Amino acid sequence: MLLSLLVLSVPVLSLPPHQRDAIYRSLPADVGAAVAGNIKLIFVNAVWRHGDRSPEQSLPGKDTDLFSEDDWKFGGGGYGELSPTGMIQQFTLGGRIAQRYMQDFAFLTPRYRAYEIYFMELETFSIYFINIIQLIKIIKVNEIYIRSTDYNRTLISAYSNVAGMYKDTGVDGTDLPTGVDGWPVGWVPVPVHTVVNKYDYTGNPDADCKRKAQVKQLILDSDEFAAYNADPQAMRNLSAFYVKATLDWLSSNSQSSVTAQNAYWFQDTMQCESVHAFDLKGPNSDASKWYPWYFSGTVPDMTNSIVGRGLDFLDGLGNPLGVKGVDVSVEMPRMRAGETVGTIYGNMQGALACYKTPNDDSCRKFFQKRKYFAISAHDKTLAALLILLGPKKYVVPVGYPAFAASTFIELYVDTDTDEEYFKVIASPFQESLQVIYLATPDDEFKSVTNYVKGCPLTDELCPLSVLRDIVDKYTPKPDMDTVILQYRRIQQFMI
Predict the structure, then answer these.
(1) Most confidently modeled of 22-26, 336-340, 448-452?
(2) Does the pLDDT of residue 33 top 60, yes or no?
(3) pTM of the entire structure?
(4) How far is it, in rounded angstroms, from Cα 154 to Cα 81?
(5) Strand locations in 385-464, DSSP E?
(6) Measured between alpha carbons, how far apart are the two ends of the chain, in Å?
(7) Which one, 186, 229, 281, 484, has least CB within 10 Å?
């Protein structure tokens, strides 16, 4: 069984230098294993970050921010809403997905179909010399399933994405209305599913979990984190002098206490206001003139680095030796992305069961025709998944992925009939996986499979057993709900 990982990226608004120089960008474009004679693409899992949005809050400090929530008009208005730029990013990404899987690989059907119904003859018998044909109705579900976290920006990103996938492919009068004044030309509505954020352990790394909060506190209380705050140079090769100077500078100008933990709000809000200066103030607007104390010298890049390295640390990348007997480099990814990778692997197992024995009970209805499962989520979702799998430091060396960045995990089957080969695996199938990353919607699809933990360094595909081992190690046992219940009970007992 083999595994392969692909990564795709989105149009870059302002990637910091440490992301622009990622090893990923030197990799060749992936043409895909699906075109090889005996290699057959079976299933695709996709995870993407939502598109460009308004900031999630104002700048820290009294009267620091020149704008309030009322000044952000797009996406319905207010903080954290998807912008028209973000919609375009996702629409572009959807078009790239269609190009790869509908045209280049001829894997997905170009036209969206909710389900197909046909009748199959089961048996024929006679009653009073009349032939009776008993029919069984077979329902095949649609090829794609789109899931989103329960945020406006991720839901609208998903709608924008599938609009790009299925643009101008619908049949008038069947897939979309005919002769309705004002209906968007060529737009085919496609359903997007969601669950409550508090319990969305697949798409939301910050979903309710006491154990995760406990592990985070272990990191915050660790000697390593204290050393990082006191002397970042010792942990991340940053200049301690410039880090302290940057944080002091931000604190002084915002009249607030800025630390490595809360500097994110400067980075995020300043980036949003800079990108959308035109929307806020009109033509020829320039955020650097509004906040010269921030957009000067190395302050923006230093802030990006401080924020990125702090986020990586809290995601479990800074304590290789563990804290108080807990291996946080395993435990934190397990709590933040274990359910995500478990869902991805479960999808593959369901697809394989239907591929091998389509008429057997092991082929669940959900996977009878399913080929594509997408999760519209967040930067933290994608970062947590890449950390768990391994390629994160090669794709986004510091911090989180950009708007509309995406990762695709593709499942392949080798249908070669070599006798000896099949004896080794005791099956007429060789399953393989490919992981692809896209940093921006305009980027090339590039495989980062070789950087997945346990995968061969040179082979295009990786044994699916590698992913199974990763899932066994990182998936919460026996499941996330039980883990949460256990730690709630422990918490109550301690109280």
Answers:
(1) 336-340
(2) no
(3) 0.85
(4) 9
(5) 406-414, 430-438, 446-447, 462-463
(6) 48
(7) 186
